[in-house]
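Regression check, fe (ii) ion case 350:
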Amino acid sequence: MRQPNPNPRAKNILVVDDDESIRQVICDILELEGYNCLVSSSVSEAKTCLDENPFDLILSDINMPGESGIELVRYVFDKYPDIATIMVTGVVDHNLAEAVFELGVYDYITKPVSRSGVLISVKNALHRRELEISNRTYREGLEKMVADRTTSLRSIMQQLRETIDGVIQTIALTVEIRDPYTAGHQRRVATLARAIAIEMGFPGESIEGIYHAGVIHDLGKISVPAEILSKPGRLTVNELNLIKDHPQTGFDILKDIKFPWPIAQVVLQHHERHDGSGYPQGLTGSRMLPEARIIAVADVVEAIASHRPYRPALGIDFALEEISRDKGIAYDPDVTEVCLKLFSEKGFQF
Ligand SMILES: [Fe+2]
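Current build output:
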């Protein structure tokens, strides 16, 4: 055997054959061409050699005493999948050739070997191996990049979600600090509206939007003087008109915020009524957003059931009677039905 090729890029090839003369011929051809060549006379010797040296390619006989070349390539595919394999055999058998190709062997050459036959086959196999390794490296790099970007996108989405939650909570708090009588009202409306949306089978994203809209639906009340909001007696027509502006005011404040839900529109429509008797636009049910139909019912139920500055709490039974009586008139019939069911059958409580 010649001295190893000092070129660090020279390829290392293992030749496995029980016939010494064949090993010698193949090694001579390869070494003359600049390859580094090691030999093994059996599969068990080859396995030890593989465990001790790095190889790019194996040229192996098929029929040998002990384990066969087929068993060797199976071992190689399992333990060293980056090593290319070529079978060298005296048996000309198309079925056998097909079987080893199916296993993943790159080529099948027959003895007696020729110089050009060996070199063409070796060069092809090494070229194909390099392509496969670089394709795999590229694919793995791409997969890692996609995974990294997905992780960072998820984290950005999470931050965005937390920012939206924070904005909504801050707005809700602003309203509640100014108007103690509606403290908690918005949150209770949001909770009931969300329960109705879930029961009606709304998709998860919409349910989240309905909850957020509920939490700030009375935002526009910050433009109403606090003494009107907390006035214990009857309101004058002017005072009532000021309060009636709050859906429009809320809409005006929210309309330029790019929420992923139509929150500003829902806030604008939450005092509309199914029969068109609501305000500010007098929309009928079919023109109201589904989210607004839900908030409208939840808002009324909570408002009637709870204490107001001008009257004591009327209780949930009274509230449910009210929406039941006006079901399909002032209130969306489906939403009302689901709301009644939540309290009567599903044990919903504020
Ligand atoms: Fe309101």
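Comparison notes: Residues 179-344 form a domain with the Hypothetical protein af1432 fold (CATH 1.10.3210.10). The pocket of fe (ii) ion is lined by residues 217-218, 246, 270-271, 299 (CB under 6 Å). No diff flagged against the previous build.
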